Records
---
Amino acid sequence: MLRELLPELYLGWDNLLLFAALNTILQVPTWYFLRKQATSLLSEIINMHITWFGCLFLCELVERSNRKANEQATHLHRVGFYIMSQLIIHFGTVSWAWFTSEVRYSHLPHLSKRQKNPPLFKTIAYLIMGSILDGLTIYVMWRISPDKYDIHVNTGPFTYLSQVISIGALVITDFNFLFWHGLLLHGPLWFLHKHHHSNYRPTCISGRVFDPLDYIIEVDFTFIALLVPFVLILKPLGLWNSYVLSCVGVFGMYFSTIHHSGKADVPAPFPGMLPWSELVSSLAVSEDANALALHEGHHNWISCNYGLFGFADRLCGTFKHAKGWENHRDKNKKA
Ligand SMILES: [Zn+2]
Ligand SMILES: [Zn+2]
């Protein structure tokens, strides 16, 4: 059944096993340094594989929709398939992030008491809005990119090595997000971002609230600025594969949702196919904080923690612990 669903898997089945084996080994230190008090190693490894494979499945669907878009004769059809690929990403990743945070890890406490979620229809409307804006963004990128840097033209296979290299994009994205986010927070554009900050203690669901222009600046500009170095670095190395585009979309959206969970100990994979790489960013924030607590702190205090992973905030001196962090840390120390 699975083989039928994933017949043209870019990784190939051999490569898939290689990813699975290396990720399993490298997830052990991640669990040890980040979550050994909160979850068992078995639970960590099971969750890692389910999330990783689920995202991989979404990547495959997204890749197919993007490829269909590229075969279309009319621009309207093309845009339609791009939006379709984004709908898959938004609904797939948000559902899974919600399930992970609120069902799979329901026993883990929030850093502080949560505010109410918006009604379901509103959440669905925000997801559809985000999908349309992301789909249009990919269309615009395709229209303006010179032939040589066309994001749909591959220069090589999709490999573990290309993913490891792309970890560098974490740092670039972090500074880039700090810039756009800072612009929204400290200037005449604050009125756009205010709505997203109506919730001081967000959840995976309430964190999806964005005004359209806020979404374009905060999410789509970051997405574009992330893909540019990816393409510029990986293309000349012969390691660019359009599958990276799908991975950035899927894992980026999964991360964006889960970093609003308000639970510091939920696993939060970001770059492409390497779940363990969250360890890289967590060590950068400090040995006693992580990327999830970072964004929780941003919603609590607003004028701190502008970045995504902590590198940029550490360097700019804008890092601050989330509310309830001391409690959380003390409990973990006692355990
Ligand atoms: Zn913000
Ligand atoms: Zn937020």
---
Amino acid sequence: MTAEPLASDDALAHVPLGRDHPEIRDAVRAICVKYPGAYWRNLEDTGGYASGFVKELTDAGFLSALIPEAFGGSGLPLRVGGVILEEIHASGCEGATCHAQMYMMHMLVRHGNAAQKQKYLPGIATGDIRFQSFGVSEPTTGSNTLELKTTAARDGDHYIVNGQKIWTSRALHSDLMTLLVRTTPLDKVKRRTDGLSILLVNIKDSVGKGMTIRPIEMMVNHNTTEIFYDNLRVPAENLVGEEGKGFRYILDGMNSERILVAHESVGDARFFIDKAVAYAKERVVFKRPIGQNQGIQFPLARAYSEYRAADLMVRAGAALFQAGRNCGEEANLARLQSSEAAWNAAEACMQTHGGFGFAREYDVERKWRAARVQRIAPISTNLVLAYIGHGVLGLPKSY
Ligand SMILES: Cc1cc2nc3c(=O)[nH]c(=O)nc-3n(C[C@H](O)[C@H](O)[C@H](O)COP(=O)(O)OP(=O)(O)OC[C@H]3O[C@@H](n4cnc5c(N)ncnc54)[C@H](O)[C@@H]3O)c2cc1C
């Protein structure tokens, strides 16, 4: 085992209990209430992007919470970014419209050079530069990131990028993208984790000049695309950190990503439980509220129990991250527990609503579909279990 018992860990002495950061929660909810279910359903009908919602969150400073103050953000702890996303989800809104900027921030702040930070961070903070797109997944290699096929070859002061990415969300609604590419062939590196690099790609400058973006129709409105790279020229100054070390930078950012999206699942669980409990009290069948039946009540009680446990693990992960401690175990446990708590709550909420759960105006089916995504993206449950299996329990690796 890699971690000491949680209770003896100093960093966890500061794990907040109760609804911490109440002013921030209230302010986020005050924005979300202006974007009710009808707004999201309409976007689904049109495949639209939540520009108004994202702009309002940006203008209020919520999306720059994790950007250092020196670059126009508020330099707040990861937990605050998570609380913002949690409230967005608990309100029935969608953090996927804007969360990538938060979860890529750690990578850019930690590994970007001074010129890159000066060039991009202030614009990201004001919303002039939309940094919402993250190109890692590929059609042929899937979860096996180390074998990804998109290459970038150095040519003078540029990299020439060739290959294909899939599931690159929000590419058509972003200005700047993080792109993971192979700069040294796999058979020429000492360690399999070497030879991958991160490029910052200016999307607007690239479309039609070696970058082709095609939307993918999906069961959720993530504005997801596939992207073809055909001799795209990217300035070498857009390389983040050192060439060949990109996978380490991605790994370094993964804990913050896991913890942030886990907050979203905690928010989803709250949404489903609140909605289901209210309905179970009010819906009367056989002359009694359906919530009086243990067949309805117990799944909700169980969902509540799972949500509370996940919430504690999410807070533990955020506290350890903030203390600069190793938080890989807690980040992965938080991710696993919260995505499962949200899904079980979604199922309980759907069942509680009976046929009305399928009626779009109740928003249960929309959030149910969205909650399902969290067990596959940004990382699938099996890969999290594999981390716990070999990284924490020391069992043999399956890959
Ligand atoms: C809505 C949505 C938005 C997304 N947005 C982005 C984005 O913005 N940027 C981006 O880069 N990607 C994005 N993705 C992609 C996402 O990260 C991947 O779908 C996810 O990581 C799983 O990869 P895959 O789909 O290739 O599955 P595969 O790797 O093909 O795996 C399929 C199944 O097999 C399992 N599996 C594979 N290998 C093992 C193993 N060794 N042991 C046990 N089980 C295994 C997986 O867990 C999974 O359940 C998005 C996906 C979705 C659905």
